[in-house]
Write a structure and sequence with these properties.
transmembrane; 16% strand; transmembrane helix; two-stranded antiparallel ribbon; 3 helices; elongated; 2 domains; alpha+beta; membrane
């Protein structure tokens, strides 16, 4: 620690000494020297990865919930005895059979409504569980741990 010229020097940092007056070149408060700007930036090294993981998890959630909604819509159409020759009903039925996870004939009661309710309902619940499990695993193994590095950058131009 050295003193001289109105400032104290600590290793590589200069601090103004209020007892000795302002350092040379110091201007009055509120004065900004013309010709330069100060830019401050905080950079979080985890931010990009966190954004990517959130985006992937959002896509997975959207797809699995969409499949579950299609299966529930098929259940509702069957329970309401919708016309199977209708374009919308046949579209939902074909899409539901495609996303039923092979559970289309898991339960085989005599009543068609009960069969559709049990099979498609089970598939819808499984889609929701699959989405939750995938999101959990992705977040668990791809997000960084509790250590966090934040870089502070200040540039004067």
């Amino acid at each position: 620690m050295q003193g001289g010229g109105g400032a104290l020097t600590l290793d590589c940092m200069t601090i103004p000494d209020p007892e000795r007056g302002p350092r040379p070149g110091y201007e009055a408060p509120g004065y900004e020297a013309p010709g330069y700007e100060v830019h401050e930036e905080i950079e979080d090294s985890r931010a990009g990865r966190i954004r990517a993981v959130r985006m992937v998890c959002s896509v997975i959630t959207f797809i699995t919930v969409l499949f579950a909604v299609v299966l529930v819509a098929h259940i509702i159409l069957v329970l309401a005895e919708a016309n199977p020759k209708n374009g919308f009903a046949s579209f939902v039925s074909s899409w539901a059979s495609g996303v039923s996870l092979g559970l289309h004939n898991l339960f085989t009661p005599d009543a068609a409504k009960l069969r559709t309710f049990l099979n498609d309902g089970t598939a819808a619940i499984l889609w929701l569980l699959i989405g939750a499990a995938l999101n959990f695993l992705i977040r668990r193994f791809t997000l960084p741990g509790p250590r966090r590095s934040v870089d502070y950058r200040r540039t004067i131009e």
